[in-house]
Specification:
alpha/beta; TIM Barrel; eight-stranded parallel β-sheet; 9 helices; globular; binds flavin mononucleotide
């Protein structure tokens, strides 16, 4: 049988938190806008899922510029979670996204448990009345303004509280996006699993800093920012592998994925699906090329179901 007909036999669909994705490749939050921005270049129907920019109950302007700076093999961003707010998203962006045969995952955040709960409630209500939202991805890399500014995702107790509260609020599949700025990511994943999460995604950006030595000032107005891109990939792959050994719920892996080979590293290490973030800025067609590349690789390897490569790492 020729390679092309073998490629057609490859089953790429995966089940994440009860949602059947046509393939395991999605976009990562904050790097693909609300989908519309890329729709001229990318056939959105082909994507496993679109994860939209992080939303909050009230719109946010984000941080003052400069908010982005280059770093070796990556970039540092301090956008400050700028977004149009959940109500405007539902009114202005979701109708556009509903036309496509893909799954929509809404990333959201808050700066108190109450705000996380309210956000989850508004998104669940919108989904119940008009559909179009297939899962929630909760960004826990935010400080709790009501409780000493402790970042939810770096404190097991705060994380348990917020995930438990949101779990009670929504019946939508709940994906928790883990922060890599911790010592033991496996432990954090276990806390999240025990608190009722359906899946985890990782990694979010790693806190970094770039200095303008002439001015003796940080390059970013916010002083620090989140590092993303190929620079973080080996850390992200290691963390996915650690989480794979720690929990039973599915993992969505991300961090510096630019090519099919990069995506495969995450799958072999234990991810069931992957997301492309910074890679979209360099090559807007990265997701499509990776979907095609996965089919080709699996056919060449004689593996006809992508699920069989998840966690296939041998040590
Ligand atoms: C400009 C920018 C904005 C981002 N915004 C969000 C966001 O709103 N919510 C979130 O959970 N992650 C956000 N992220 C993190 C990415 O979704 C992703 O987890 C991270 O960048 C690592 O993947 P990458 O190296 O492929 O970009 C953002 C990343 C970048 C570069």
């Amino acid at each position: 049988m020729g390679l092309e007909s073998r490629e057609e036999r490859v089953e790429l669909s995966v089940d994440i938190a009860g949602v059947r994705l046509k393939n395991p490749v999605m976009t990562s939050s904050g790097t693909f806008g609300y989908g519309e921005e890329y729709s001229e270049f990318v056939d959105l129907n082909r994507l496993g899922a679109i994860v939209v920019k992080g939303l909050s109950v009230t719109p946010k302007e984000g941080n003052p510029p400069p908010r982005i700076v280059e770093a070796p093999a990556g970039m540092l961003n301090a956008i400050g979670l700028q977004n149009i707010g959940i109500k405007a998203f539902i009114r202005e962006k979701l109708p556009f996204l509903r036309q496509f045969k893909t799954h929509i995952i809404v990333n959201f955040f808050g700066d108190s448990i109450g705000e996380y709960v309210q956000a989850a409630e508004e998104l669940s209500n919108a989904s119940a009345s008009d559909g179009g939202i297939h899962a929630l991805e909760m960004n826990i890399s935010c400080p709790n303004k009501e409780d000493g500014w402790i970042v939810f995702g770096t404190d097991p107790k705060a994380m348990k509280q917020v995930v438990t509260a949101v779990r009670k609020t929504t019946n939508l599949p709940l994906i928790i996006k883990l922060s890599p700025n911790v010592t033991d990511i496996g432990l954090m994943a276990r806390v999240v699993e025990d608190s009722g999460a359906d899946a985890v995604s990782l990694i979010n950006t790693i806190i970094g800093m770039v200095v303008d030595v002439k001015k003796r000032r940080p390059m970013l107005a916010n002083t620090t920012g989140g590092l993303s891109g190929p620079a973080v990939r080996p850390i992200a792959v290691r963390m996915v592998w650690e989480v794979y050994r720690a929990v039973k719920i599915p993992i969505i892996g991300m961090g510096g994925i630019m090519t099919t080979n990069d995506a495969l590293e995450f799958l072999v290490a234990g991810a069931k699906a992957v997301a492309v973030g910074t890679g979209n800025f360099v090559n807007p067609l990265a997701t499509i090329e990776i979907i095609d590349g996965l089919g080709r690789f699996l056919a060449e390897e004689g593996i006809y179901n992508v699920n069989n490569i998840t966690g296939s790492l041998e040590i």
